[in-house]
Every structure is written in structure tokens, then in C-alpha cells.
Queue: 4 jobs
Job 1
Amino acid sequence: MDVSPFVFKPGDFFRDRLPPADLYVLCQIVHDWPDDKVHEILSRVAQSCKPGAGLLLVETLLDEEKREARVALLQSLNMLVQMGGRERSPGEYQCLLEQHGFCQVQVAHLGGILDAILATRVGP
């Protein structure tokens, strides 16, 4: 008997309707896409988010000056060449998220190659 409160739903976030949720988790998704697709993804998540729901992004973060995070810089170049995407700084993620109605953006450096960005959806 599964008593887990979590339900995972497969799908294509460019075509399928996103199910309502209290928390959306995008792990190493946003960096794959060029800006227009990132805005499309975040817009679709925002439309499905109720006020107070969260969005957790797990990505490799660049430093704000884009000089020190060498692994992230190499990864960003790789994403640009292969997919048209890129790594971003915490400030760039905050700007993206705020454009789609997310606030209270918090960044947690996890001590490895990945970091976490948590934001809350405000009103409609």
C-alpha cells in the first residue's frame, strides 16, 4: 500500500497540461533551453501554480560576475553549443522567476556541482 503524498506525472511541459501541485521541481531542466523556451516553461508552471505554491529549480549556478565558477562556465559553454541553453547566476534566475510571478527567491548552495533555487508563486 502506497501512502506517499507525492505523485509523479510524466509529460511534455511544452504540450501537456501541467497538473496542479503544491511544489514543482525542475532538476537540470532550465539550463538546457534558450531564453524563449525557458519563458515558455516558466509561464506554463506559473499558470498551473496556485498562489503560495513553490517552484524548486536545481541547477548549476554561475557566480554573478561569471568569473569564478569554472565548472559552471564550462557547463554553460557546453549547453550553449549543444542545446542553445546556458547556466545562469542567482540574480538571473531571480529576474526570470519574478517575471513569471514568483517571489521570495531563495538560493541554497549545496556544496557540490548543483545548487537549489526555491521561489513562491504570488497571486494570479
Note: The two ends are 37 Å apart (CA to CA).
Job 2
Amino acid sequence: MNTKVPTSSFAAEDRFGQRVAARLSDGSQELPHDIGERLRVARAQAVAMRKQAPQLRAASVVMQSGHVATMGGGWWTRIGSVVPLIALVAGLITISVLQDEDRASELAEVDSALLTGDLPPAAYTDPGFAQFLKADGASD
């Protein structure tokens, strides 16, 4: 099982963020004071959201390493995952019952044809009768 955290993509994101921040800082010195303050507040909010991101990253790393991580959802999530399973089992049971009924009706048709036919049922087990049917079928 691979539990290594892929740090190269995180480092690349950090470098990109630092470059964008540097460019924004360079251009913000020429802006009016009120716009600069709004940008400072937005930057502080972005940094606060960035500090929450490692929790989400840990969940994605757990998902990548083959473990299942649940992030809330409660009992609706559990019901939502059980309903398809119940539907699958019900479908398989229905298919099985229908196939059993079809097979039983086919066997009933064969049995009724044997019992209501002109020949006795013992004739069908006679090897000579099988040869007669083969020869009779070849002559047609």
C-alpha cells in the first residue's frame, strides 16, 4: 500500500501562489488606499482558507492510498449507499424466479406432449426407436 504523500504538486502550487502574491503586491502600491484595504482583507481571507486546505488534502491522500474517508453525510449517505444494493438483490431474485417459472412451463409442455401423444413413454427410451427417428429424419 502506498502511503507516500505526493509533495511535488503541493510544492508547485505553493510556488505559483507565491509568484502571484508577489505580482499582486508589486501592483498594489499604485492603487488607492480603499482598494488596497479591500485587497488586504481578501488576501487575509484567502490565507485563512489556505490554512484549512491541508485537512482536505489529507482526506484526498487517504482516498488515493486506498482507504475510504467519509466527510459527514450522516444517515442519508448510508441509506443512499444501501438502496442500490437492495435494488440489485431484488432484481436478481426477480430474474431467478422468472427463469424458474419459464423452465417449469417448458418442462410441463414437454411432459404433456409425451403423455398425450400416440406413443407410450417407454417407446422414447427404446434405442431402436431412436434409430428409427434418425433414419426417418434422414429420408425426408
Note: The chain has two domains: 1-71, 73-140.
Job 3
Amino acid sequence: MDLIIRNAAPKDLPSILEIINHAILTTTAIYDYDARTLEEQTAWFEKMINDGMPVIVAEHDKRVIGYGSYNIFRPKVGYRFSVEHSIYLDDKSRGIGVGGKLLGSLIQRARESGLHSMIGAIDAANRGSIEFHKKYGFIEKGYLREVGYKFDQWLDVVYMQLIVEEEE
């Protein structure tokens, strides 16, 4: 597959919006309930860029088929070396290596930025995502029972972590 991983641009926001809204409305990959507007997604993108956080896309045949990003894990100065990442793909792009390319790029960017730790918060029922993260060296570090609620059910979260700082 001819796949390009690159920094997202404002022109990519309609595709990013379509991907995230599908996840919001049909999955427990994200615990939001309401579809986002283009204005909301644009504000998110501008804040990410202004904060120096990456937003990247996977492009195939000049079409955005997935995106990824990370942001500081928690808004306290002591957490500045740890980030929580997110990757979302369109339905037709799962299981063909797109997510791995996005995650690999985010890991590399984290290393180059001097970050120490990447964290994934994953719906515990999403075994595919948990196994995917294990392939890239993430280790399960926590399990929180019934902390989310969506689609009329309580949801558990698995926290996974990768130490990205390269050893000297």
C-alpha cells in the first residue's frame, strides 16, 4: 500500500472530523456522545499546533484514512514528559498496517521531543487495540472498572504505557 504519514494541515480537518465522528457515534473507542462540528475540530487542531503537539495523518491515494495525535497526559507541570496518544482510522483501513505506521511515527516524534512516556487509555473490551499496543511494546499498567458510561453500559479502561526515552 502506498501510504504517506505526514503532519496534518487545515485542509485535512473535514476528513479527520468524519473519522472521529464515526468513532464517537458508533464505538466505545472514545467516550464522547455528540458528533463534533468543524468549528470544534478546528479549535482542537489549532490548540494542538499552538501547544506544539503533533497531529499526523495517514494518506492513501490523496485521501486521509486515519490520524493520530498526542497531548500532555495531565495538565500539571510534573507530567510534562508523559503524553497520552490517540489513533483513529476509517473503517476500511483497519488491519492493514495504517495504525502501526501512525503509532510508529508518534513514538518517534515523542523520542525526538525528549518525552519519556506514552500512555494509551483503551476501552477494556477493545482487545484488538490492546493487542495492537502490545506489539509496539506497550505494557498494561492499570485497569479502572466502570469509569466510563456510553451506550447504556458501564465501561472499563485499560491503561497501557511505553517508555519511549532511548537508553544511553
Note: The first strand starts at residue 3 and ends at 7.
Job 4
Amino acid sequence: MTSTRMTSSSNPEDLFGRAIAARLSAGADDLPRDISERLRASRTRALSQKKREMGHAVVVDTGGSAMLGLQGWWQRALAVVPLLLLTIGLLTIGLTQEERRTAELAEVDAALLTDDLPPAAYTDPGFAQFLKANAAAAHQ
């Protein structure tokens, strides 16, 4: 009733599927005729549905690639574009932040150099206490 078709495929999934099919087919001869016919009809429907699904997948896959004209190295080149854009964006952000930090440091340096006090006064611990006391008095 059932015929087993041997192929040269040694794929583990194929081997497992063949083992299951052989095990299921082993007891098929002992089943009543009506059950055997229903099983045969179910197998036929399942196989035809699987063939249709595989046919659609092949058409969609090749049709999508052919329509866009993306073949071989073009696909790999276009896959690199997002990575390239991300790298450029990160470099731009880094350079912008570095420019801001440099501008802030330049502003502090300019304020220190143009102030009436010498820069050494800012490193004096007593002067730091004096500034804190004045700031606290100004807030009261």
C-alpha cells in the first residue's frame, strides 16, 4: 500500500522523518480498510498542501530578489550600509561632545586668566572656605 522512496540525503531531519514514517506504516496493514483509506486521503492532502507552501515560498523568494535586482555582492554591500551609518553617527556624536567640552574648558580658562585674582588663589584652601562662606551668606 505504501511505497518508500530512497534518496541519497543523509540529513538528520530526513532520516528521522523516514524512521517515523516507517514505524507508522508498519502497522498500517493490520488496520480496517475504511481507516486505511482515510489515512491515505489525509496523507495526500498533507502532501499537496506542503507542496503548495513550498511552491509559494520559492516564488516569493526568487521574485523578491529578482524584482529588486539585488544579486550577490550588492546584497552584502547594502547590508553594510546600516553599520556604516551607525559608525558615522557615533563618530559625529563623539566629536560634538569633545568640541563642547573643549569650549567649556576654554571658557573657564578665559575666566581665570581675566579675573583680578591670580590662579594660585583658587588652589588655596583658605580661599575656598572664604568663597563657601560668602556663598552661604549671599543665600541668607
Note: The mean pLDDT is 79.
